[in-house]
Specification:
The protein is α+β, with helices and mostly antiparallel strands and about 280 residues long. The protein is about 20% helix and about 25% strand. A hairpin with a 6-residue loop joins β9 (about 180-185) and β10 (about 190-195). About 35% of the residues are buried. The mean pLDDT is about 95. The chain binds succinic acid (SIN).
Amino acid sequence: MQVEQLACSIGAELTGVSLSDAAHDDALFAEIRKALLKHRVLFLRNQDIPRADHVAFARKFGDLEDHPVVGSDPENPGLLQIYRSAESPPERYENSWHSDTTWREVPQFGAVLRCVECPTVGGDTMWANMVLAYERLPQSVKEQIADLRARHSIECTFGAAMPTDKRHALKERFPDPEHPVVRTHADTGEKILYVNGFTTHFTNFHTASRVRVGQDHSPGSGDLLRYLISQAQIPEYQVRWRWKPNSIAIWDNSSTQHYAVMDYPACNRKMERAGIIGTRPF
Ligand code: SIN
C-alpha cells in the first residue's frame, strides 16, 4: 500500500490496496487505521467493491448505525443512501461545515463514504483538520474556552424544515446533547476544537467571572461561538477531494469537519456512507 499526502495539513491518498481485501485482513486494516489517525482523511480510487464489503470494512472500526432522517440501504443496514437527483428539493442540508452526528450523545468515530454516481464536474467534498484549528487559536482564546461546554441540535438542523410536530418528535428522540468545546481524541490524546454547524450555544458561558452587571466580558458568547465555528473555513486547514464513481473517503469524524460543495446543477449525485459509532466525547 502506498500513502501519498494530498495537502500539507490533512488528507492522503492510498493506492495499491483494495478495501475488499482490507475487510478480511487484520494486518492491512491495522495499517489503514494507523494512516487514518495520522492523516485524518484517506482517499482511494477505483474501489468497485460490493456493498457488503463496504459495510464489512467499516465494521472493522466498530458498529455501524442508521440515521433518523437519511435512509439506509434495506439490504445493508448502517449504509446510508445520500442520494440527490434532478428532482431533489432545492433545500440541501449537508451544505455547512460539520462533524457527523454531534447531535447524538455519542457522535460517530468516523465514516466510509463511497461515490456511486456524481456530476462530471462539481460536488467535491472538503475536510478540515480541527486539531490544527485548535492549535492555531490565540492563547487567550484557548484559556477562555478550556472548560466551556456547548449544546448540539438535530432539531435546529435536520429538523428545521419539518412541520412543528415532527420537529418536536425528532427532538424527543434525540434531545440536544452537551459536549466539551475542546475535545480530547480518544486514540491520540490530541486536543480538538469541537463546535460545528450542529452547535447552538454554550451552556456554561455566563458565569460571574465572565459577565459584569448585564455585560459580557469581550467577546460575548455568540461572537465567540461564531468565531470558533468559522475556523473550519480556513484554507490552510483543508483538503478538497474530487469524486469519481467508486472513489472512497474514510475520515476520522472526531478530529475533522467536512463540507459537501453544492456547486453543481440539478443532477444525480449518489453517495453511500457507513457511519461508525464512536465514544462519548471528553
Ligand atoms: C456527508 O457525510 O456529510 C456527505 C458528504 C458528501 O456527500 O460528500
